[in-house]
Design goal:
Shape: globular
Number of helices: 11
Largest sheet: 8 strands, parallel
Distance between the termini: 14 Å
Bound molecules: 2-phosphoglycolic acid
Radius of gyration: 17 Å
Order of helices and strands: EHEHEHEHHEHHEHHEHEH
Helix content: 40-55%
Length: 249
């Protein structure tokens, strides 16, 4: 059985007091689904969040990391640093990193390798832009994003990889992919995994959907057979909404 996962990507939101307040609210929520719950606060709030959620079933994860172990990379944070404070999962390849920080497939391949070498799990994000979808090029784009950054890996390394399909046109726009569009793409991604690595990897890899998932559309999206969870932005900043989404499983 593939793991169900719902991860909240807080992006550059919430200072320390806001982080503490939201965590208090999250701890008061009732988890009624089998989904694994994760939150990704900013770097400065990872340690306090980790401490506050130590005895709970909410995992604290990072939004990004550098590929190097240490060195002259002003402003960057390494896998080793994350591991040293107890963080063992990282989001890589988010479309905002690709768009605003020029993260390429090649760079992301290096980051994936660094994360795996440091025994971290990766939530690897990818997705097409609106023009790609309009021109019918979306599957091709997604296939290349996955291949370029991940297909140098061994099959056994996929146990530490979670995929997150996030159509760029649906992120923060209030416009979601329809459950059918999500299912169609997730099935395509699973087939791509099958073609490259075979049935075991294809069946065992969780594929999350991200892009304007809200309490009112989560159930329908999560009901699709190839959708194994969600990466949630805006709605993860509200504890009740976030848990309504998680409990939609
Ligand atoms: P959104 O963000 O839920 O606000 O659309 C999703 C994401 O960027 O992961």
């Amino acid at each position: 059985m593939r793991k169900h996962i719902v991860a909240g990507n807080w992006k550059m939101n919430n200072d320390l007091p806001q982080t503490e307040a939201l965590i208090t609210e999250l701890k008061a929520q009732q988890l009624t689904s089998d989904a694994k719950v994760m939150i990704a606060p900013t770097f400065t709030n990872l340690w306090p969040a980790f401490e506050a959620l130590r005895q709970t079933n909410i995992e604290v994860i990072a939004q990004n990391m550098h590929f190097a172990d240490h060195g002259a990379y002003t402003g960057e944070v390494s896998a080793r640093m994350l591991k040293s404070i107890g963080i063992s999962t990282v989001i890589l390849g988010h479309s905002e990193r690709r768009a605003y920080f020029n993260e390429s497939d090649d760079l992301l391949a290096k980051k994936v390798d660094a994360a795996l070498e440091n025994k971290m799990d990766v939530i690897f994000c990818f997705g097409e832009e609106l023009e790609d979808r309009k021109s019918g090029n979306h599957e091709h784009i997604v296939e290349n994003q996955i291949k370029n950054a991940l297909f140098h890996l061994e099959a056994s390394q996929f146990k530490n990889i979670v995929l997150a399909y996030e159509p760029v046109w649906a992120i923060g726009t209030g416009e979601t992919a329809s459950p059918e569009q999500a299912q169609e793409m997730h099935a395509f991604i699973r087939q791509t995994l099958f073609d490259a690595y075979g049935e075991d990897v294809a069946n065992a890899t969780s594929i999350l959907y991200g892009g304007s998932v809200k309490p009112n559309n989560a159930k329908e999206i999560f009901s699709k057979p190839d959708v194994d969870g969600g990466l949630i932005g805006g709605a993860a900043l509200n504890a009740e909404d976030f848990f309504a989404i998680i409990n939609a499983f």
